[in-house]
Every structure is written in structure tokens, then in C-alpha cells.
Here is the input.
Amino acid sequence: MKKIFYCILISSVFFTSCKKFLEKTPKDFLSPENYYKTKPEIDAALTGVYDMLGKSGTYGRYLFFEMDQADDSYVGLSSWTQDIALYNAGPSDAKLALTWSNLYEGINRANVLLERVDQSSIKDSEKKVAKGEALFLRAYFYFLLTVNWGDVPLRLTSTKSTADVNMKRTPYKQVYAQIVSDMEAAADMVNPITNYTYGSRVTQSLVWGILARVNLKMAGAPLKDKSRWAEARKWADKVIKTNIHSLNNDYSDVFIKLCSDKYDIKEVIWEIEFNRLNGTQNEEGSLGSINGIGTSSTTIGYSYGAKKTTEAYYKSFGTGDLRRDWTINDYTYAATAPFARVPILATASLYTRSDAKFRREYEANSTKFNGTTTINFPVLRYADVLLMFAEAENEVNGPTTAAYDAVNLVRRRAYGVALGKATNAQADLTPGLDAIDFRVAVRKERSLELGYEALRRFDLVRWGDFLSAMKNAANEISTKAGTNSYGSRSGDNASSRDTVFAIPSREISLNHDAVQNNGF
Amino acid sequence: MQKFFTKRKNWLFSGIGILIACIFSMPVQAQTKVSGIVTETNGDALIGVSVMVKGTKTATITNAQGKFQLTIPAGSNTLVFKYIGFQEREIVVQKPTDLKVVLTETRSNLDDVVVIGYGTTTRRELTGSVASVNMTDLQKAPVKSFDEALAGRVAGVQVTSSEGKPGSTIDIVIRGTNSITQNNSPLFVIDDMIFEDPNGGVTATVNPINSLDPNDIESIDILKDAVATAIYGARGSNGVVIITTKKGKAGKPVISYDGYYGISESNKRMNLLNGYEFVKLQNEIDPVRTKSLYLKNGALTVDSYKDVAGINWEDQIMRTAAMQNHYVSMAGGSESTKYNVSISNLKQEGIIINSGFNRTQARLGFDQTLSKKLKVGATANFAKTKLYGTPTSTTNYTNSLNLLYSVWAYRPVTASDDLDLLHNGTDDETTGDSRFNPVLTTNDEIRETYTTSFNGSAYATYNILPSLTLRVSGAYNESIRDVETFNGPNSRSGAYGNYLVSGGKIFYNSTSWANNNTLTFLKRFNKKHLVNAMAGLSFEEANGNNYGGYSTNLPNPSLGIDGVKQGTPNSIYSGIYSSSLISTFFRLIYTYNDKYSFTATQRADGSSRFGDNKWGYFPSVGLTWQMGKEKFIKDLKVISTAKLRTSFGKTGNNGISPYATYSSLDMNNSSGYMFNNTDNKGAFLGALGNKGLKWETTDQYDVGLDVSFFKERITFSADAYYKKTYDLLLNADLPTSTGFAAAYKNIGTVRNRGLEFTLSGDVIKSRDFKWNSSINISFNRNKVLALTENQSYKTTAVFWGSQWDNETPYLAQIGLPLGLMYGYIYDGTYKYDDFDKVGNTYTLKGNITTNGKTRNDVKPGDAKYKDLNGDLLINDADRVIIGNPVPKHTGGFINNFSYKGFDLSVFMQWSYGNDILNANRLILESGSAYSTNQFASYASRWTPENPNSDIPRALGSTKNVYSTRIIEDGSFLRLKTVSLGYTVKPTWLKSTIIKSIRAYATAQNLYTWTNYSGYDPEVSVKSSALTPGFDYSAYPRAKTYVFGLKATF
Here is the structure.
């Protein structure tokens, strides 16, 4: 009997210890089940959501370079033969796939946080802010997705199983509805911008401003929901009415500050911050290096200067408009040290000039990496809010004084007129325009004020002008650009399908319920 | 092992012998007491030999020391010695005491001992497909480790080395590729230690094969079919390679020395355009620039460069390299104590400057018989290695970062006498790529890996009963790998780029242990029934960690890597893992009448790497029939033995990282975000766990036939197999809308089937001249039967240059072999006929396809691709399968000749019908960039003077595509090892202390017959199941000549 007892005892000890022996838990990474508890953990998880804004596929590069290819520039890299910026890339293009996956990775990170934050031990007030920021970011990622791809799978819960792969593309109307409701909810949860001294946090002004942008988009193509004009007007007005925001006196200083890591939250309501933690593309961006004024000087900072301007865009600036020579360079750098500025001769082809809004000579770092910079990208400026207000106000109430005031505020700064209500004949918009002319004027103003800020293609598509503008630009480049006439490729290749991009082929082949966009 | 088995058999017979002795010994008058000892030819005592007085029933058996004693009745004086496996011997007793009887083994191939998992058996009883490598042949190759010499030796075993760099990865694949994304390496068992993947994996911080001198290996047995591998259960799917090291033998100490010294040189050079051809090409690419640069605005002509010698960059970077190995061992012992010690030192220089492999290794082993029942033993191996040199093909970011690109593309001539290309780091004419003076950068970079490893194992066997043996063994491994990187001020990254002088180290440490306990029962019942049963229990654990750091912008380059602390910290590494396995296993081999043999195995494995499905069960059965024993074959005098085998079983593959089932919460350098110019760490879900993961399973069927003819002078072996691997552990692609790119799933199915043949024999067997020959050939066919959900095909990009990342040259499609090459069909160049000529402008005719450019841009001489769907465009729809990297058959052919003291061994190896994707030609036969030299073959490109050429004109192949143009036949026949030796007559050495001496000369990789245009057809620089046979900037393969001496004292 005793023997049997010992046998059982020994074997049960043996099997329990076997079971223990086979349990190996990871020690150099945490399990998500044990995370999302404390304030630092929630902060880190939220930082992880913000992280996706600064990748190559997002504001690190593609969103302002390849994916914003419109009529105000051409790709100055003649060796390129196939690219999304040339509108001849197929669904298997790696850049498309990266942007798509960056955005969805951000969405999943936000979903995980939103699901877990309630179980954390942080204060309710902190919970509310964290949730608001995550909710807004998720909505913003969806906004970028639907603007660029139309119908997209709307995943509102985190992926929990490896079998959870199939999902239909949700009609864009529904996606927009979700974006608006999430952003509106977030607006009441996040902090006012005055809580911060910097512009990279999601704040109330930012959410309202982006809501104005979302509603403008909804009022235009493809949704064309006219009722949204009033909404856009409402949100832009809310930002204006805060009386927190104002324009910087000096247009160029807005960008010099962005280059040199200084904040001006009155004007720049939302900027994407880049750092130089390890000098990789993932943490630094390409702003000022893929575009900017081309130079191989490492003192100034290497730049490809690959976003070249078009003649029409250069000439669209009025006489005395100070924005022209900041947006487009009027000098280059000497090839040898000390790399002095060399003015571009008036006789030189305009097609050699570049998008020069972000100049590495102002970059804060002492050592500058080739190919990457720490220049911050402005997603939302107060000038944009004013122009959005003017555009929406005109659509709702016509060219009212309020609409005029908003545009003129922007224009007076552009002409170097001191800020204030004083009228200025040279700067101010022709008075007495009708609603249609005012619309044309405000649209042009957006192009002049916000050029090369990842908004031109967005604007053209929502106005329904994308294809005609691209064809006009191609025409102009091929007839006028001489040796740079290769720059007409984007316009030559663009067709009606190109108001959206192809759904990455990887998504199509692995997500059984996804179908391709027309024309791809 | 061999001893171990023989001994157990001895016990069986000793039992029978005692019985006989007891029953039949009777008291007889006028007896003589006789005593003596029975040994093998090597002096080892034979235990359990039956000793019988001829014509009587008096008998005894030898004891554990091989001694016997018996009384001979009057009138008898002849003793008969019988022992299984040895020739019967009769001895007339002259003097009654201290009789010394030596028995010689009866040699039948069927009596060869074969190492199987956790035991041995003989060929006769073997039901599985197990190939034993001929070590005598293999050890003739002057290689640092046995895997380099394994290719072509054994049917069904495909060995591919990725490139020619000393120490580069060698892939051993047994019976085809099972796994799509995971490791396909067989399991390695070295003495009692198990290694899952020598090239990495959990238990191999240090490649255990590189730590072993081939001279120390006694035997290599390769288990191929399921009944052989299933005893290794969850890790047996890819086959098992069992390596047994040498042990001491009883007798006087034998000291041996084997050393060789020799040289290596490049097998082949890539010819490049000479100075004149280069300038001519520049003139075609950009006449304006060339006019001012090379032609000095008309002062010179292209012809002026005809006499300019130019720089041969290959000559600058290649060298004649030295190789040497010295191995000394001592072995010996008494009957109860046996020992062996050895040390060796190897230095192998690479044929590219500043690269090579060094190893110092020591080994110690002993076996001690403590009592009749108890025996213990231990071995220890200690090795230090250093692998150094800039890898030539590993950089993924841009093609121009790879070393050989700089060698080939660097311009051979300049326009200026003052410009010293050889001593300048960069060439000002080179813009837009990362080319750098290859000599300077190679000499000023450190890419060194130091390893230290200790392997020890010990065992004890205890004979509980004569037929029942308990064996307990333990093994321990401790390894450190130290990877050092440093970029000096004259190296590419030290002079250029963001980090300037930079460097760092990473240490990888691992320890692992294993404990195996087996109980073996071996008994013959009623002469006809032989039972060999084994049950076992084993435990294994592997632990590892790594740490390291890297810093940049080092202020004092002269401090080298030790000055890393002064730089800007860039990255810090840390990691830790642990993995464990518990297994129980059982095997029964039952042989009836030495004619029918049946094997059944069952193993259960429990692994910490899996979550909810920790335990897996792997059964197998096998049957053999000794047809040779049947009358109808016995009557055919030609056939000496014939054996038919068949088996079926399930095996597994657990090749995933220790924590693949876990979702991981990650934080790293690139997951943070800045707020207010301050960096914040970001946390995110880095991997989507899958608790339901389980083993990948392979069902394998095998039928085999072993026949020998003319008294076993010729032997022939054939195997046919069918393997289906399902529930693949697949790092399956996920739609990225899930937020993840891939996750581990058990999904997908791959099938392999094949045939293997081996024929060997003694062609001539006269007294002085012997010629022995062996040839083997294998055929494997592979097919993908299923991929992940929704996936009917999977294309794979190869990352070797950023502008090619969008192109996917490999395809895995359901119903087709794994890893096919995929792309466009090259259709030559556009000829003048394809155009309408208006004035001086050529316009493409309306019915001719473009090549991806806009129609107006297509010019005569441009690369042309086949438009398959007739839409006159070249796009994704025109891609098809353009090559198959899997050989139709592979094999080896060895001939050994001996004449008196001379011996000659000639080994050839081949691969037939495999394609190679030669990406070198995409860059170096394209003329698409200024100041970039090209292969000599590009001299015959399309030009207006050479309008029939199908090589695109300068600037005529700017679209980045993979096409049939660069797919080449990779078939080859290689004269791999030729070794000529002379053994000095023993009689000449009588007065010296030298027992034997052999001097030899060996050539390795002597000649290769192939049509492949690259350095070497045995190449796969991005080696994986999905992307085989890719060549870009592969390190050239060396041919080596050595002279050596082997002596025993």
C-alpha cells in the first residue's frame, strides 16, 4: 500500500515538475496581457500610436512626396521609370503597400489601447485624454486611408487571431461617418492646445481643424454631401473663435521654425515631430532631403531637391507675394565650401527650381545625415483653418465679410503687410466677387499658401479638378520644359482611375473579401 | 557504440554458453586444464565466445576479460572457437596455458554496424533507410568541416554552400524541402548532444560542425526515412545526421599526426571591359560628358585608350591564399580503460584579402569498465574559431553596397594621370551609388566573429540482466559567439555616410544540456526470434542570451573597436531565451529467423515552444524481408544478399523561435515619438501570438531495395519515397489591414517524392591493384499543395538593391515546385525593322509591343520582352515562370585506386537541370549608368554597327525587371577532390619509431564543367526555401591544392 502511495506521489511530482519544466515565459519582452496598467504604460502605448505618423509611408516621406504628386510640381528624378508618383505603378508597388500597412498598424495599435485603457489604474481624467487622442488618431488614419483608397476595411477592434484575415471594404460613406463621429467624440476628450507649449499633441484646436478638413472633403468628391459645408464652417470657426491662434508675421519664419525644432502653436496647430535618435528613416524624415534645395553639401545638409516646380505654379504668385521665393527657391548653393548661396538667373529655366519650403540650412542639428532630416512636418496651420473657413463660408453664405476677412488675413501676411484689419490694395482680394469667383480665388489661395504641404492633390481630387489639372501640367511641361520634359510623365500617365490608388495586391490576395479599385 | 552493441550480443550468447557448459560438462579421466584469452585482431578482448572441445560436448565461454578455462578430456586436443560475426577457428592445443587466440571478423556488409537513434543495429536488421558516409573517402578532402565535403557523397542528401567564403552557410537538405518559411536543416546528433540547426537556431550559438575537426569523426550516419527518423519525433522531419566521434582502443598508445599545407586561388575571374572598351561605352552613354572628360575636348579619341593598361580591380582584391591544418592525436588504453586525446589547428585564408577562418580545437575522451556490469565514459571538445572578412553579398539596402560591385564596376581608367584611383577612397566621377575603393575598404573594416565552445558528454551503462542494459547519458554545451564590427576611417562607411567611424560588438551566449536514459533489451529466443527493444526518456534544455552595443562617430579611430565607448551610442542589444523538451520513446525491432524484421517506434515530445499543444506523438513502422535467404534467390548464384525494406511514419518539425506562440509587447529605437523635442518610448504589439501552434507534421513512405552480387563485390541500393508535410509552421502572410504583416500559423502543405540509387563495387581486386568505385544519384520532385488561407500563390522579392524591391523574381504557387523563378520572357533587342523611320526618328510600329517605356521612348537596341496577352504593353500580366532552381538530379561518383603503396582517389559531384538567377548581369551587363564598368560580354552589345546583337544597347535596359535574359543553366559537374597518396612500406619503417606514414597531395574543386557565366554554379546568396539559386556579388569559390603527411607512431 505504502509502495503504491509512493509511486503515485513520485509520479505526480514528476508530472508536475515536467509541466513546469515545459513552461518557458519570455523575459526580454512583455506580454500584452500584463501591460496597459500604469500611467507610463498607457503613455508608451499612446506614443506607439503617434509613432506611425512619422514613418516613411506616412509623413516621413510618401504622404508629402510620392502621394501628393499634382500639378504644382514634377518628379525631378529622370531615372525613375515606375512609381506611384508617376501614376504608372501597379498594385504590387512597395510604397503603396508600406503606406497602407503603416496606417493600419497605427489603427491596430489604437484599437488595442482603446480596448485596454479602461482596465488601467490611471485617473479617469487621464483615461479620457488618452482615449480621446487614440480615438482621434485612429480616425485620422482612416481619413488618410479613405482619401487615398476610397472604400477600405473598417476595423474597429484589434486583431486578436491569426485567422482574422477576411474583411470586406467598407463603403467610404460609412467610413466618413465613423471618422466624423470618432473625431467629434475625441474633441470633447482631449486637452485644449494651451495645455502644451508644442504642436505635436492631439488637442482640441487640432481635432476641430481636422474636422473642418474632413467635412470639406465630404462636401466634395467623391461623397459630395453639400450639407457638410456648414459643418466645415462650424469647426473652422470654432478654432478661430478660441482666439488662441494667429498667423506668424513672417511667412518664411513658419518654416524656419519647423526646420529648427522651434514651436509656434499659434500658427502651426499640428506638426509631426522627427528626431535623430538613431539616424534611420523610421525616426527621421525625408522632409528637406528628398525635396528642398538640391545640394551634396553635408554642411548644409544633403538634398536631392527632387520635387521640381512647374512654370504655371511659379507664375501663379502675384507680384509682391513673398510666398513665391520661399516656396520655390531663387538661389542654389555653390558646389564647394562654404557653399554660398548663388542666385538663380532670371533667364534660367523655371523647371530647375525646386520645392524649397523646407531648407536644411536651418536644420537644428550640427551633424546632418544624408537622406534624413529632423525637420517637422506641418499637418495643420492656422492659415489653412482660415482658408477652410473662407471656402466653407462662401459655399454656405456666399462671399461674406467674414469670408473676405479670413482670406485677406492670409494674403496680407503673404505681402508683408502688418497683421491687423487695415486693408491693403495690393494684398487684398478683389472686393465684390460673386460666390463663383470667390470660390476660384479661395481655391487659388490654398495653392499659393499651402503649396507642397501634402494638400494639393487632396484639394484637386475633392474639387473634381485632378485629371484636368494633371493633363494641363503635362502639356505645359512637355512643351516648355526642354531637357526636363520627362517631367510630364505623371500627367501623361494619370487617368480617371488615379483619384485613388490601387489597393495593395498583398491585401487583395490575402484578404479574400477585398476587391480592387476600378482601373487597376 | 560498436562495442556497446557487440557486448550486448555477447551477453546473449554467454547465457546460452553457460547453459551448454552446465548441462554437458561431465567428469572425464586424464584431463588437461587449458586456459587462454580470445581477442579481436585489434587486441580487444572478445566476451562470450563459445569455446568447444572438438568432437565432444565439453564447452565454455569467455568471460568479461575475454579469458576462458576448461578441461580437455583425454584423447582430444583441438578447440573450436565460435563467435557470431567472426570466422570460426580451430586450434590444436600445443601448450595448455596462456593460449592466445585471435578471431577475425566475417565481413559481410550486412554485419556493418549502423548507428540509429539511441542505439545501433546491423545492416541485416535495419528496416529504415540509413546511409553511412564513407569516412575514409571524406577525410581526404582538405576542408575545415565535414559538411563542406558532404555534397555528392550520399544519395538523397543535397548540400549547397551559399558562396565560396570560408565559413559561409552550408545548407544540408535531406529528401527535398519540406518547410516554406522555416528551417529545413536536418537534426544533428553529435555523440549525445542534439543540435537543431547548425547555422543558427536555438541550440547553436556556435556552429557545432565548425567546432569539429573532420579527423575526429568515426562515423556519420544519415537517417532518411520515417522509421529511422521518427525516434527523433518532433525534430525528425528533415532527416537526422548522427555523428560519432573516435574513441580509444585497447593496446599500446597510437600517436598520429595528419597535417597539410597548401594554397587556394580563385577558380575563375570575371572578365571586364578593358580601358578602351570602357571609354567607348561611356561615349555611347553620354557623348557630351565623355568628350570633355575622357577625350579632353577632342585632344584624344576613344582609340587613344587602346594602349592604356587600366586597373584590374579583381587582381587587386584577390590573392593566392594559404591553407593549413595540423592534427595530432593519441589513443590507446587497456581492456578496461581506453582514452583518446587530440588537438588540431587550422588556418584557412580566403582568396579575397583580409578574410579567412581559423580554428584551434582539442578533444578528450575515455571509457572505463568499472565492473562486469558497469561501464562509464566521457568526451569533451573545446574549440575556438575566428571567422573574418567583409561579406560580399549580404547588404540588402542597395546593390552598390556589396563588395564585388565595387570591384567590377570601378572604372579601369581615368582621364587624368594625376588621379590615383588605387589610393583614393572614392571616385569623384561616381555619383549616385555607394561604390568605394574595394581594397581600402576591405583592409580597413573589421567583420570578425570569434567563437568559443565547449561540448562535454558522459555516459554510464549498466547491465541489469545479461539481456537488459540501462544507459544514462548527459551532455552539456556552452558557447560564446562574439561578433565584432568596425569601420575604420578608410572604409566605405567610415569615410562616407552618417556614422563615419563606427563599431560595436554583440555577444551571444548559450548553454544547453541533455539527459538521455534508455533501457535496451536484446535477446534471442529459440534461435529464431531476436528481440531488440528500447525504451527511453530524455530531457533537454537550452538557454541563451545576447547583449551588445554599437556606437558611431568615434573620435579616435586609432583605438579601433576598443574605442567604441567614446562614440555616440547608437544601439544596444539584449535578449534572452529558454527552451525545453521532454521526450519518451520506444522502439521494438523484432527479427524472425534472420529473414523478416519488423520495427515499430513511438515517440512523444513535449516542448516549451508551443502553447496549448505542447505534446506531439510520432509513430512509425518498418518491415524488411531478407529475400536473399529465400531459396529462389539463393539458387541464383549471382546474388549474394537481397533485402527489401518498406516503412511508414510521422515525424515533426518544431523549427520556430522559443516564444513564437506569444504576442509580444515591443519597444525599440524606432517605435518612439517626439513630444516637445524629447524622445518618448513607444510600446506596441510587435507580434501576434498563436497559442494554438503545434508541430509541423510529415508523413513519409519509403520502399527500398538493397542487393549485392558476386559475393558482395557489387552492391546496389535503391529507395523510393513519398513525403507529405502538412500543418506547416508557416510565418504566414497576413493582409496588412490586420495591423500585422505575418504571423505563425500551422497552414500549408508541401509534397516531396523521389528516387535514390547507389551502386558501388570493387571493379578490380587483384593483389597489387585495386579499383573501387561508387556512384549515387538522387531525384527529388517538390510541389506546393496548399498555402495560407486565400493564397493561391506567393511571390517573393529579393532584397539586394532598393530599386529592385518592387520586383518579385520568385513564385510559390499551388501545384508547382517551391521557389520558382518568375518574370518576363526576354525577346532580344528591338531591331530597325520594328520601327518606322521618319527622317532620323524611329517610331515603333503599331503592332510591336513597348517594353514598359512610353512608345516614343523606345529606341532600336532597347531590351524587348514578350508581350503575352497582346495588349502591346509590358506589365505584370506578362510575367511567367522563367526558371526552376531545383536540380533534376544530383549525385556523386567516387573512384579509389590503389597500386602497391600508392592510392588515388577521384571524387566528382554534379547537379543537373537547375537554373540560377544571375543578378550580377542586371547591373553589369546593362550599360545603364555612366562611369560604371561592365562585364566583358557587354562589348558585343547592340550598337548601330552591331545591329543584330541581342544584348541591349547602352541605356537600353533601364526598366528594372527580371527576365529570361539573366536566367542561366546552373548544371555542373565538378572534379571536387583528387587525392594521390603514397604509403611507405611498413618493412622500411621497422627500425624507426614510425608505424606508418602516408604522404599525399590533394586538390579540391579542381575543375568544374558548367555553362554558368558567373564565378561558380554552386551559389545561393539569399538562401531560403523561397529564394534559391540567386547570385549577386557571391564570394568566388577557391580551388585548393595541399600537400600533406599522415603518420602514426
User: Anything to note?
Assistant: Residues 162 and 1019 of chain B are 5 Å apart (CA to CA). Chain B touches chain A through 82 residues (CB under 8 Å). The longest strand of chain B covers residues 568-592.
